[in-house]
């Protein structure tokens, strides 16, 4: 037996959202000023209109924050935490993938010893979280969270399952492209950065207001990993390469924490 959730009649169709996306991008191209980061109030992403920040970031003393913020060191992060396919009684369902890349500064220099955390939906597009009531199956062998520290050359590396797309009710039949959320901590808690990795060739990218809220195509493309045959593990996993660039003209688009 299968069931299909009834669509909400009050949601707008994709055509309305796509028209808005196209108009905003045309305006951006006409203005001619390069933007490399997502727009925080982006009308096609409906909930961003009410919840986007309206004040400048609050300046805080990093040292004062460190008195009560979480802290970690090499000994707190077990290498096994970078493998999201283990730690359960059985194998998770889905396409096994290796995701790896370098964390670098604007000059291409490695950023070493940084805590990289990821979280994601399972192969069916379902998060292992009580807030996710999407009627897709949970996988008892997949939790969808992992972390590691970058090595001396700035490399991070995860083994996981390729996530599925999921609906998110921004508009009628809205689906998030397959993605993995990334968080990178700097030298202290106040430097945390959050972004998302996408997979190449996903037809949902062009339809997704969150991805399209980065209005510059080249900046958008910097969130899309590249299939890398050299990263694959023979007869075990496919491989994707995605570098995170913290500054400069090719910096990775970042977002406020908490996006869908
Ligand atoms: Fe997500």
UniProtKB/TrEMBL annotation:
Pfam families (UniProt xref): Dioxygenase_C (PF00775), PCDO_beta_N (PF12391)
Residue intervals of the Intradiol ring-cleavage dioxygenases domain: 99-127
UniProt entry keywords in alphabetical sequence: Dioxygenase, Oxidoreductase
Entry's Gene Ontology molecular function annotations: ferric iron binding; protocatechuate 3,4-dioxygenase activity
GO BP field: 3,4-dihydroxybenzoate catabolic process
Protein family according to the UniProt entry: Belongs to the intradiol ring-cleavage dioxygenase family.
NCBIfam families: protocat_beta
Protein name as annotated: Protocatechuate 3,4-dioxygenase subunit beta
């Amino acid at each position: 037996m299968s069931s299909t959730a009834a669509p909400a009649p009050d949601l707008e169709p994709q055509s309305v959202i796509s028209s808005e996306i196209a108009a905003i991008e045309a305006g951006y191209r006409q203005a001619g000023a390069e933007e490399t980061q997502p727009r925080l109030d982006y009308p096609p992403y409906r909930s961003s209109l009410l919840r986007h920040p309206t004040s400048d970031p609050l300046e805080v003393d990093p040292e004062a924050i460190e008195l009560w913020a979480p802290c970690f060191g090499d000994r707190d992060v077990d290498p096994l935490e970078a493998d999201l396919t283990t730690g359960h009684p059985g194998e998770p369902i889905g396409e096994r993938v290796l995701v790896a890349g370098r964390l670098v500064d604007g000059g291409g220099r490695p950023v070493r010893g940084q805590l990289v955390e990821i979280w994601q939906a399972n192969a069916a597009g379902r998060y292992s979280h009580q807030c996710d009531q999407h009627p897709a199956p949970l996988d008892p062998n997949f939790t969808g969270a992992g972390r590691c520290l970058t090595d001396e050359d700035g490399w991070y590396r995860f083994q996981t399952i390729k996530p599925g797309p999921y609906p998110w009710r921004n508009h009628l039949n809205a689906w998030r492209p397959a993605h993995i959320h990334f968080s990178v901590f700097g030298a202290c808690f106040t430097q945390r950065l959050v972004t998302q990795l996408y997979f190449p060739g996903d037809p949902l990218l062009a339809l997704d207001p969150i991805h399209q809220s980065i209005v510059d195509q080249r900046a958008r493309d910097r969130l899309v990993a590249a299939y890398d045959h050299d990263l694959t593990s023979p007869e075990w996993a496919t491989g994707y390469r995605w570098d995170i660039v913290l500054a400069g003209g090719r910096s990775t688009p970042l977002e406020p924490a908490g996006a869908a």
